[in-house]
């Protein structure tokens, strides 16, 4: 597994200056629940994308219909798939790369988060 360090750059919404966030993955059994969840997202993506690291339309449908059905409805109609695929494919190369996929995960997670907040259960 990859080890090393690099940086990601976050945009400051006020002065538009990129802010450097050092990233230094050190896989370990002591990883947090969140870190393990992040790795799970990466593994699921690669399970469906294979070595090409991009999802074709049929692979996106299979991933959603196998891995996300408790959060979003199964995709049954071609028109629904075409629309979702078009929305996610930001660079228009007719494939979904990891950055485009993680946008879907972020949107669905954000939409569902209210159901899982502690206040909602009490
Ligand atoms: Ca794309």
Notes on the protein architecture:
The chain is mainly α and 122 residues long. The chain has a single domain, classed as Recoverin, domain 1. The chain is 48% helix and 10% strand. The protein contains five helices and two strands; from the N terminus they run ββααααα. A two-stranded antiparallel ribbon has the order 1-2. A hairpin with a 6-residue loop joins β1 and β2. α1 (33-49) crosses α2. The protein is globular, with a radius of gyration of 17 Å. The chain starts with 5 loop residues before the first strand and ends with a helix. 7% of the residues are buried. Calcium ion is lined by residues 89, 91, 93, 95-97, 100.
Topology (elements, then pairings):
Elements: E1 6-11, E2 18-23, H1 33-49, H2 57-67, H3 78-88, H4 98-112, H5 118-121
Antiparallel strand pairs: 1-2
This protein binds calcium ion.
Query: CATH fold name, please?
Result: Recoverin, domain 1
Q: What string gives the helices and strands in order?
A: EEHHHHH
| Helix share, percent | 40-55%
Task: Look at the structure and name the CATH superfamily.
Answer: EF-hand
Q: Tally the structural domains.
A: 1
Calculate the mean pLDDT score and round it.
Answer: 90
Strand percent estimate: 5-15%
- In CATH's first tier, which class applies? Mainly Alpha
